[in-house]
């Protein structure tokens, strides 16, 4: 059973929101093509650029974090549709300058393609993506399983999860939010003033190489939100608790928890 991580859930929402924004662009595109005028080429090019920008954002930032196979299939099917739409629009923009007039059927083909979006995504593109993902994951899962087992047996390890997944996810969230450095300590290793919070257990230090205090606070709140979602109590402390080994201007902040993230050492 796949357990959805905080980042995966967050980015799945971001992808849904982006797809909703694309619906508005589709309406703009339909209005332009219904005019059947080559004088609208520049406006069509602008809409195409907006499509491309948002699809690239999904592809490069959000989609790689999606692990659930059903979500991947759904998102990939939508992306296939938009890839083809952008390709058709790019071809239109490249060739428009060679024509004085374009047959109405060419414009109608775009209108039909956009209006058939749901049927295409649920039919043609879903079938293509199902085949691609099946081939990819059948091979990948076998390769990964063989690699992991060989690696673990070679090291004679009995435990398969020794990386501290919670700590790794906290560091990942902080760095995505903009932190340049992240460290996590048991509270007794770093806090002298235990009056900051009752019964502190862990301190998550993060740093940014800038004097942007709003950014510092934003990173702390991202970490806190994640910890709260996991049932931990936490406060953001914007004060320098450790010295950062750097010659650049830097601000440091911390999130202090009352729930244990690390074992006593």
Which tags fit this structure?
single chain; 265 residues; alpha+beta; Threonyl-tRNA Synthetase, Chain A, domain 2; 2 domains; 4-stranded antiparallel sheet; 4 strands; elongated
Brief summary:
With 265 residues, the protein is of the alpha+beta class. It folds into two domains: 6-138; 165-257, Threonyl-tRNA Synthetase, Chain A, domain 2, CATH 3.30.980.
What does the model show?
- This protein is of the alpha+beta class.
- It has 2 domains: 6-138; 165-257, Threonyl-tRNA Synthetase, Chain A, domain 2, CATH 3.30.980.
- The chain has helices at 6-34, 41-62, 69-95, 104-115, 117-154, 165-177, 213-229, and strands at residues 181-186, 202-208, 234-237, 251-257.
- A 4-stranded antiparallel beta sheet has the order 1-2-4-3, covered by helices on one side.
- Helix 1 (6-34) runs antiparallel to helix 2, helix 1 (6-34) packs antiparallel against helix 4 and helix 6 runs antiparallel to helix 7.
- The longest helix has 38 residues, at 117-154.
- The protein is elongated, with a radius of gyration of 25 Å.
- It starts with 5 loop residues before the first helix and ends in an 8-residue tail after the last strand.
Quaternary:
single chain
**Number of spatially distinct domains:** 2
User: What's the helical proportion of residues?
Assistant: 55-70%
Structural class: alpha+beta
In whole angstroms, the N-to-C terminal distance is 33 Å
Could you report the average pLDDT, rounded to the nearest whole number?
A: 79
Rounded Rg: 25 Å
Unreliable parts: 156-163, 240-248
Tell me the β content.
5-15%
Instruction: Report the major sheet.
Output: 4 strands, antiparallel
Counted by DSSP, the helix tally is 7
* Strands side by side in the biggest sheet: 1-2-4-3
Principal-axes shape call: elongated
Number-wise, the strands total: 4
- H/E series: HHHHHHEEHEE
């Amino acid at each position: 059973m796949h357990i959805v991580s905080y980042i995966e859930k967050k980015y799945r929402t971001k992808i849904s929101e982006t797809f909703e924004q694309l619906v508005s662009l589709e309406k703009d595109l339909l209005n332009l093509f219904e005019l059947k005028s080559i004088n609208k080429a520049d406006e069509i090019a602008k809409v195409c650029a907006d499509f491309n920008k948002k699809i690239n954002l999904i592809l490069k930032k959000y989609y790689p974090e999606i692990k659930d196979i059903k979500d991947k299939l759904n998102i990939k099917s939508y992306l296939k549709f938009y890839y083809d739409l952008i390709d058709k629009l790019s071809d239109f923009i490249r060739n428009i300058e060679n024509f004085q007039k374009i047959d109405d059927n060419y414009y109608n083909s775009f209108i039909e393609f956009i209006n058939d979006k749901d049927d295409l995504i649920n039919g043609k593109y879903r079938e293509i993506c199902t085949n691609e993902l099946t081939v990819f994951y059948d091979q990948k899962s076998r390769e990964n399983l063989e690699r992991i087992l060989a690696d673990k047996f070679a090291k004679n390890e009995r435990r398969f999860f020794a990386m501290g997944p919670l700590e790794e996810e906290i560091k990942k969230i902080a760095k995505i939010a903009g932190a340049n450095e992240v460290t996590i300590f048991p509270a007794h290793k770093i806090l002298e003033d235990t009056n900051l919070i009752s019964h502190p257990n862990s301190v998550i230090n993060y740093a940014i190489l800038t004097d942007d205090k709003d950014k510092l606070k934003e990173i702390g709140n991202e970490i806190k939100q994640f910890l709260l979602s996991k049932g931990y109590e936490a406060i953001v402390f914007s004060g320098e608790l450790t010295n950062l080994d750097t010659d650049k201007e830097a601000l440091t902040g911390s999130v202090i928890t009352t729930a244990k993230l690390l074992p006593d050492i």
